[in-house]
Amino acid sequence: MKPFVYEKTHSEWKEWMKKEGESSFRADQIMDWLYGKRVLSFDEMSNLSKSLRQRLADAFQLDPLKVITVQQSSDGTVKFLFQLYDGHAIETVIMRNNYGNSVCVTTQVGCRVGCTFCASTLGGLKRNLSAGEVVAQVVAAQRYLDQMEERVHSVVIMGIGEPFENYDATVRFMRVINDPKGLHIGQRHITVSTSGIVPSIYRFAEEGLQVGLAISLHAPNQELRKRLMPVSYRYPLEELLEACAYYIQHTGRRITYEYALIGGKNDRSEHAHALGKLLEGSRSLINLIPVNHVPERNYTRTPRNQIFRFQRILQSYHLHVTIRREHGSDIDAACGQLRAKHMTPEEKKTS
How far apart are CA 156 and CA 185, in angstroms? Predict the structure, then answer.
């Protein structure tokens, strides 16, 4: 299996060219072909010699994604279902915001974390994606936006999978898309979300990155969180919050806590007060998320007026609270929904 061409940073391309006996400026050229012109074949790299183009084709795969389907929402949201080289399917979403276009990328085929409200966990984890396969999603989104003469403004690593269970590829992905010779997406325009893989949070704090960190919290106490998110058995809430405090202290960065409101499960006033007490005084943002309906799950959405009441209670604890704007409500824009529609009942069973 050849590696994907999107795996390397500019400095790594310079090293590769040196080993191949080529001038270092060839690294600039290939970065421009990949991320500036966004070519689909090595043959298009016309200012490279035929010999070099052939060596590149022999050593790397260029584009690992084949479009299965594209859904477009009335609000401008676009969702891609891509097929990978081995036949597995993943999702990527373009979300249009007031500040620009955001792309939500996938890091795993499926997920083993098992959050009970999420379609991504159906069928369990199949495999990790390589960094190149994740980078390719952003490049494909940019190719789509090229038609409208628009740009990718930010990237959220919140698609299918748990990024911190594919840690090395996720961090490499961030460094590649941040490279000034490539897509040059600023670190502060990148956010990664984790269900709470505690050792990786400590490790991430040491990376020296200015990337945003979001924690999928979804419960104000350990017992409820275990029922909603089995990952809390491995990494209890108390340990998770200790890791978050370390991250804040070590990086000076604020954490976002994501809280999916599920009708009758975690959305009552007592839950809001418990969450307010839990996070009071922390340098954090709480992002309330109306839960998406998943046919295979039995959860219902919290009524709108109750969402606002939940927000007001949290604000009484002097917390910064937002309600996530919904994207693509008329298409399968929620994480894992489109992939789930293309899975057979047998595929949805966790092996």
Answer: 11
